[in-house]
């Protein structure tokens, strides 16, 4: 495995581990998701540059668009929960009480 692929894989796995193990605040979960999406964006951008194909050059832009939509929806949820519950702790959120 080349060092470039190892670094992308380890960055993605670190984001997944942060999402799985650090479940105290919603903001930290959103940051881990954003790190995973940026890792995927950089990996697909480098992959499309190595292929030298015009058909695969739009894939990173579509992924970046979905990442921006995910970030905006996550921030809207963060603002809504901090206004309604007073904090962004995930332990205070319960779907049965909403």
Automatic annotation (TrEMBL):
Keyword Transmembrane helix: yes
InterPro entries the record matches: NADH_UbQ_OxRdtase_chain4L/K (IPR001133), NUOK/Mnh_C1-like (IPR039428)
Catalyzed reactions per annotation: a ubiquinone + NADH + 5 H(+)(in) = a ubiquinol + NAD(+) + 4 H(+)(out)
EC number: 7.1.1.2
Localization (cell): Mitochondrion inner membrane; Mitochondrion membrane
Keywords: Electron transport, Membrane, Mitochondrion, Mitochondrion inner membrane, NAD, Respiratory chain, Translocase, Transmembrane, Transmembrane helix, Transport, Ubiquinone
Keyword ATP-binding recorded: no
GO CC terms in record: mitochondrial inner membrane; NADH dehydrogenase complex; respiratory chain complex; transmembrane transporter complex
Membrane topology, as annotated: Multi-pass membrane protein
Positions of transmembrane segments: 6-22, 29-47, 59-80
GO-annotated biological processes: ATP synthesis coupled electron transport
Listed GO MF terms: NADH dehydrogenase (ubiquinone) activity; oxidoreductase activity, acting on NAD(P)H
PANTHER family: NADH-UBIQUINONE OXIDOREDUCTASE CHAIN 4L, NADH-UBIQUINONE OXIDOREDUCTASE SUBUNIT ND4L
Its biological purpose: Core subunit of the mitochondrial membrane respiratory chain NADH dehydrogenase (Complex I) which catalyzes electron transfer from NADH through the respiratory chain, using ubiquinone as an electron acceptor. Part of the enzyme membrane arm which is embedded in the lipid bilayer and involved in proton translocation.
Family recorded in the similarity comment: Belongs to the complex I subunit 4L family.
Name used for this protein in its record: NADH-ubiquinone oxidoreductase chain 4L
């Amino acid at each position: 495995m080349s060092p470039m692929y190892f670094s992308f894989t380890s960055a993605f796995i670190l984001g997944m581990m942060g999402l799985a193990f650090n479940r105290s605040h919603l903001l930290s979960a959103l940051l881990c998701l954003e790190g995973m999406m940026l890792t995927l964006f950089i990996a697909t951008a480098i992959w499309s540059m190595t292929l030298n194909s015009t058909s695969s050059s739009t894939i990173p832009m579509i992924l970046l668009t979905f990442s921006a939509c995910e970030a905006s929806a996550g921030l809207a949820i963060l603002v809504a929960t901090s206004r309604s519950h007073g904090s962004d702790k995930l332990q205070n959120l319960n779907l049965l009480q909403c």
